[in-house]
Design goal:
Layout lengths: L7 H8 L4 H6 L5 H8 L1 H14 L2 E8 L2 E8 L14 E4 L1 E6 L4 E3 L9 E4 L2 E9 L2 E10 L6 E3 L10 E9 L4 E9 L6 E6 L6 E4 L6 E2 L4 E3 L2 E11 L6 E11 L4 E7 L4 E4 L4 E9 L2 E11 L4 E10 L9 E5 L5 E4 L2 E2 L6 E6 L4 E8 L12 E7 L4 H7 L1 H4 L9
Parallel strand pairs: 3-27
Antiparallel strand pairs: 1-2, 1-28, 2-4, 5-7, 6-7, 7-8, 8-9, 10-11, 11-12, 12-13, 14-16, 15-16, 16-17, 17-18, 19-20, 20-21, 21-22, 23-24, 24-26, 25-28, 26-27
Helix pairs in contact: 4-5
Length: about 400
């Protein structure tokens, strides 16, 4: 059958249901198909359908500077019993090991390094090249495709301490890196836009002196992280520390701040910022969730929940995000071959908790004597982010940063 006889709208509808890898290959069929795939309408149609139908939870397991990357679907079978704590069992899908043999992840001082995840791409602030071990290069990576690229370094000297964050602007569809040197000063912030021909650092101003105390999270075009600021007491010359929520608009490149009473964890709560406080009381987790509804008015929605599972305390479970269906996702923080690995889905509307055992890590990740740390990322399923999450999969030539 000649594709010319098929209405363009119908052809788009048919092709938008194909797997991502097939779309990449079919660019070579004809000039007409290449033009169709590159059309903004088709990309939006394909990516919105594909991503909303198949949101994932990403697991990254560390081992001596090498990461093993897996994922599982967010949406699992319905609850069999609302109060049941019996475990479901799900097999993970292995994606890749990273970095390649000529690189290694630089843990930096204290065994930690700046790392970011935004709209489907991973960012590493310092990757060491084995042939030039003194150099540390920023690297971005797409865990779905295995493609990666190096970026210009922020620092001149290997011993400089740098904190950096990774964000995505859904309006202009641009990724940006925000970085700052330690110790912090007002004029030591720089930013880089990830676009062909534009990957250079630019200095920007931050009017508020603060110190970073958490990783960053990008929600609907705003990069959030937790900081500490030292301010003078009114009746004392000594300084005291306050927690501050740093809000950096990726598009306008402006800082704003909200004072917080205590340390918290930050998550993407279905396209809004979620601030999480939790504590253990007896055998239960007391969970307090604040959702930022209006930044200018500083209006928050507040929710309190009590969760119970005998796996929480011994396995150091923490909140990692919210699924496409509004379930709060919790996960163990370490992996070892000697014990099962669990994630938990809490449904606030039903007040139900489902435990899920994740299988398959040991087939690709050889466990060490000590537990391996696990990073967990819940895909943001908003329409804004869907376009950027897999754009490089549609056309292997148009995303030059990941060539």
């Amino acid at each position: 059958m000649n594709s010319d006889s098929i209405p363009t709208e119908l052809l788009r509808e048919i092709l938008s249901r194909l797997p991502t890898k097939s779309i990449a290959r079919f660019h070579c069929v004809s000039k007409q198909w290449e033009s169709l795939f590159d059309h903004a309408y088709f990309r939006e149609l394909f990516l919105t359908r594909s991503f909303s139908d198949h949101p994932r939870i990403l697991f990254v397991i560390e081992k001596e500077g090498l990461w093993s990357i897996f994922s599982v679907p967010q949406r699992l079978r319905p609850y069999e019993k609302p109060s049941s704590l019996s475990s479901l069992v799900v097999s993970s899908e292995f994606h890749m090991k990273f970095p390649p043999e000529n690189m290694r992840i630089d843990a930096g001082r204290g065994g930690r390094f700046a790392f970011g995840y935004a709209s489907g791409l991973m960012y590493f602030s310092g990757m060491r090249i084995k042939e030039e071990d003194y150099r540390r290069m920023p690297v971005i990576c797409n865990p779905k495709t295995g493609r990666y690229g190096t970026l210009p370094s922020f620092i001149k000297y290997w011993y400089t301490v740098v904190h950096s964050f990774f964000g995505f602007d859904p309006i202009d569809k641009q990724f940006k890196v925000l970085a700052m040197e330690y110790p912090f000063r007002h004029n030591h912030h720089k930013i880089m836009t990830l676009a062909p021909g534009e990957t250079t650092w630019r200095r920007i101003k931050c009017s508020f002196k603060h110190e970073k105390v958490s990783e960053g999270i990008c929600v609907n075009g705003v990069l959030y992280y937790l900081g500490e600021t030292c301010e003078d007491k009114v009746d004392d010359e000594d300084e005291y520390e306050k927690f501050v929520l740093v809000c950096f608009d990726v598009r306008s490149e402006e800082f704003k701040f909200i004072y917080l009473e205590r340390f918290c964890e930050l998550i993407n709560y279905m396209g809004k910022l979620g601030v999480i406080h939790y504590d253990y009381v007896d055998d239960a987790m007391e969970l307090l969730v604040w959702v930022l509804e209006d930044f200018e008015k500083q209006k928050w929605s507040k929710y309190e929940y009590t969760l119970k599972d005998d796996k929480f305390l011994p396995y150091h479970v923490s909140i990692v995000g919210v699924s496409a269906t509004g379930e709060i996702v919790l996960s163990m923080g370490d992996y070892t071959s000697e014990q099962p690995f669990y994630v938990f889905y809490f449904n606030p509307e039903r007040n139900t908790l489902q435990r899920v055992e994740i299988k398959g890590f040991g087939e690709y990740h050889e466990a060490l004597d000590k537990p391996s740390r696990v990073h967990v990322f819940v895909d943001d399923c908003s329409r804004f982010y869907a376009f950027a999450d897999q754009v490089e999969d549609l056309n292997v030539n148009d995303h030059m940063l990941l060539e």
